[in-house]
Amino acid sequence: MYTQALNARDAVAEAGPEEAGRHARFQARIEAEERIEPNDWMPEAYRRTLVRQISQHAHSEIVGMLPEGNWITRAPSLKRKAALLAKVQDEAGHGLYLYAAAETLGVAREDLVDQLLDGRAKYSSIFNYPTLTWADIGAIGWLVDGAAIMNQIPLCRCSYGPYARAMIRICKEESFHQRQGYEIMLTLCRGTPEQKAMAQDALNRWWWPCLMMFGPPDSESQHSEQSARWKIKRFSNDELRQKFVDATVPQGHHLGLAFPDPELAYDAETGHWRFGAIDWEEFRQVLAGNGPCNRQRMRQRRDAHAAGAWVREAALAHAGKRARRASAEAGPASAAA
Ligand code: FAQ
User: Residue 162 is part of which domain span?
Assistant: First the structure.
């Protein structure tokens, strides 16, 4: 992290006074809370950071459809099925807004998708865990969407305009997702002892992976310092993790569930819930491709991409036909212009 920041500054210093002036003016705009727009000058490292984060975020939304997608055909009622179908479609939409936001930075969506499919790009660790029972759909909505909102509300104020604007709509939809998940958990917890046990089991399996969603501890986060300086990140990984724990623990207690952490305790002095040590080795393993479902998720994405090739070809052919028809109707004058 520190090294990267030094390198960025060294590069500016080496580039000469004109370049240094451009960087200083850019940073002044950031400090003044101005939004940076696609046609504005920006440091190459800022552009690359955004492409990395926005594309990984888009991939997460797309891969994130898979664990819940498994339960669309097995939802326990028509109402639950309709809500889940709509939620999964929302996630596809989020992926598309985010790819579009990344494209404003001069990258092609096809290249970003290739990076995901050939394993060069990351997506959120959380989507490498299995959905074993219906209660997992409740836990994903309550906890995974809950964690996503905690991380994404500050991104609505991100310095890059297209990303910030995409996040506003995404957050509105995520908060509906979170509530539908909590309502599934509430229904299970008020149901039979077996249903409550399913909810407890889902919480036991999802709690720790959800805490990992916020990324490595601040002391090991490579990008945080620079991203905070550029006001891409407004809170650190650890700050957001703590906010999530503080918001979620009372919700779990309201459900009558116990958290799988014997060290979880309210600290009246700080007003925060203290929690036990996160297993960062598990996180590293999941990022390295060795989580419970990494291989299955990537196989499903590659298969879906291959199966959708004819749709992309047909859409391109249709767009080409419309463009040719429009230019023929406009006549030779417009073709000459
Ligand atoms: N999983 O230096 P930092 C959702 C990587 S969307 C995998 O701290 P940064 C909606 C990180 O990329 C969930 N990789 O990095 C939904 C970096 O690797 P790199 C996704 C992770 O960027 C709900 C390296 O570790 N949300 O859930 C993870 O400053 C339900 C070092 O880390 C977003 O993407 C992880 N958990 O902070 C959908 C939000 N954590 O790139 C379906 C936007 C870290 O050097 C169902 N992203 N890494 O190779 C962010 O806010 C940030 O990118 C962080 C990481 C906070 C995730």
Answer: 17-291
